[in-house]
Every structure is written in structure tokens, then in C-alpha cells.
């Protein structure tokens, strides 16, 4: 083939590039070259693929072995699961038995607890019933006390009944603190005035009067005061009332030569007594100056105990002669007891000596009896001139 310009000469024939035969031949040649190129590339790629496939084949082989091992493990696992299922079934059976046993114990214990709880509940209900009965009784007492409080309010609202209440309280306190023969209630003095109580103290100081006073209206007005004016008016009322009582007691119940040089004003309320001493000290001082001492139930009891000690001392002085005579008799009785003890000691000494002699004699007799018990008659020789029968065995 000879190429001339735009023409191709093949076997003496001339072909143009645009000739269909040339184009077809060129296309066929290009196709053959392309196929060869593709085959080359395919062969080359196949080689590379083979190289790349070796690790993959190895991994596939390992994977197959692992799958086979996994199948063996799964088979073993199936056997293990069966064993586990059997063990679990046996464990469940044992657990059910254990639970049934525990449930029986729990049921028994619950029954016992319920029975005990029933007994305790019954006992508690019994105690509750008793307490309710006690509460009912206390309620009745409270209702009675409420009625008594109302009655007390009615008593305190009237001056005469209030005075009687103070006298009764004074009589109760004096009766508890002093002997019955050491005081007298509602005693009329030489001036015709009647004292609530007269204590028979020896001279000095002599008989002393206790008079009960109860300035309740002034105290209640003082407690109810809301304004300063009401407070001042109530305080003025209380001062006037207490001063009046102090003057009356000083004039009526302090008589020279007949009573002690002083008297007691008894306030049957600790609250009024505390109010006077806390906020009205001038009234206390005025009472001291008038020789009238203000006392409450508590301080009156302490004062009466002091008077009791004075009465006891006076009576002991009066009985001093009798006490001395009694002491002499007691001393003589003690001397007689000492003499009799000495005589008794002598008798005991003689009896002890006799007992010692008896003991010695008994011991001597015991020793002699022991020697006789151990005595061997064969060791004794016949006394001169005595006929002694010899001891020997009897002939058979």
C-alpha cells in the first residue's frame, strides 16, 4: 500500500480517503486495534485481580473455617442451652418447693402474729375502755369543778360570802399548822371586837390576832384597767382599801396588856399579795409602821410554823421540872439495868466455868473409854493369889 497525498495505492489501485472502502477498512482496523487494546487491558487487569483476590480468598477460607467453628459452637451451645434449660427447670422446681415451704412458714408466722395482734388489740381495747372510763370520770369531775368554780365566783362576788371564804381558808391553814389548844376562832376581845383567829402565844409576845381581809373589787378593777386613767383610779382604790384594813386591824386587835404588840392581816389570794408587794411597797411599809404584817396563805403557813416552834419551846420550859424528874428516873432505871447486867454477866461467867469443867470431865471420860476399848486382856498376868481362868481354843 502506497500513500500518495490524499490517496492510497493498494495493489495497483488508487483509493481516496473519503472512499467508503477506505473508511470501512480504517474502521475495521481501528476496531481490531481497540479489541487488541481491550484484550491487553483485560489480561493486565485479570492479573492484578488475581493478585488482589489472593488475600480475599484467604479471608474467605478463614471465614469458612470460622463459620464451621461457629456451627460447631452453635451445636455445643444448643447442647449447653438444653442442659441449662434442664438445670433451670430443676432449679425452678426446687425454688417452688422452697417458696412453698417459706410461704408455709410465713403463713404460720402471720397467723401467729395475727393471733398475737388480736390478743394485744383486745388487751389494748380493754385498756382503752378503762381509760375512757377514767376520762369519763375525769370529765364528770371537770364538770363538777366547773360548777364549783362558778359557785366560787358567786361566793367571791358577795362581800359577806367572800369574808366567810377567807375565814374558812384561814381556819384550814391554822388547823394544819398548830395544835388545837393553841388557837381559837371568832374570839371576842375586851373591847367587844371579834377577831377571826387568836393565837395563844406565851409572853412575850403574847396572844396575836389574825384577821382575814379580801380587797377583791380593787384588784379586779386594777386587772381590768385598759387606759392609764383607769389604772390610776384602780390603784387609788386598792391603796384606799388596804390602808382602811390596816387601820381597822391596828385599832381593833392590838390591845395593850391583852394581845401582842402587833397583828396579822391575812390575804386569801397569792395574786393580791404578790401585786401589793410588787407594785405597792408603800402599803407594806405602812403596815410595818402600824405593826400590821400582811401575809398570804403561803407566808401565813411559814409564820404559823415559827409560832409552833415558839409554842413548843414554851411548853418545854413549862415542863422543864417534869422533864428533869423524868430524866432522874430514867437515870435510876439505867443504873438498875447496869447492875442487873453485871449480875447477869457474873452468872454467865459461872455458867461458862461450869461448862468448861463439864467439857474437861467429858473429854477425860472419853479418853478412858477409848483405853478400855483397846485393852488386851491376854497381856495381863494373874494377880498374886487370884484364880484366873486361862483363855484358849476349845478342843474339837
Describe this structure as you would to a colleague.
Among the domains are: 1-45; 159-326, Trna Endonuclease, Chain: A, domain 1 (3-Layer(aba) Sandwich), CATH 3.40.1350. The protein has 8 helices and 8 strands. The relative contact order is 0.04. Strands 4-5-6-7-8 form a 5-stranded mixed beta sheet. It has helices spanning 20-156, 159-177, 216-224, 228-253, 270-279, 281-289, 297-318, 320-373; strands at residues 2-4, 7-10, 13-16, 183-188, 194-199, 208-212, 263-266, 292-295. It has 396 residues and is α/β, with parallel strands linked by helices. Mean pLDDT is 75; it is low at 147-152. Helix 2 crosses helix 7 and helix 3 (216-224) runs antiparallel to helix 4 (228-253). A hairpin with a 2-residue loop joins strand 2 (7-10) and strand 3. The chain crosses the membrane at residues 20-43. Belongs to the RmuC family. Involved in DNA recombination. Keywords: Coiled coil, DNA recombination, Membrane, Transmembrane, Transmembrane helix. This is DNA recombination protein RmuC homolog.
Shape: elongated
CATH topology group of the domain at 159-326: Trna Endonuclease, Chain: A, domain 1
- Number of E strands: 8
Strand content: 5-15%
Q: What order do the strands of the largest sheet run in, or round the barrel if closed?
A: 4-5-6-7-8
- N- to C-terminal separation? 187 Å
User: Which oligomerization state do the chains in this entry correspond to?
Assistant: single chain
Which percent range fits the helix content? over 70%
- Let me know the average pLDDT: 75
Q: What is the radius of gyration computed over CA atoms, rounded to a whole number of angstroms?
A: 69 Å
N-to-C SSE string, H for helix and E for strand: EEEHHEEEHHEHHEHH
What is the CATH first-level class name of the domain at 159-326? Alpha Beta
Q: Structural class of the helix and strand makeup?
A: alpha/beta
Give the CATH architecture of the domain at 159-326: 3-Layer(aba) Sandwich
Q: Helical region count?
A: 8
Largest beta-sheet characterization: 5 strands, mixed
List low-pLDDT spans: 147-152
Protein name: DNA recombination protein RmuC homolog
Pfam family, one: RmuC
Transmembrane segments: 20-43
Coiled coil: 128-155
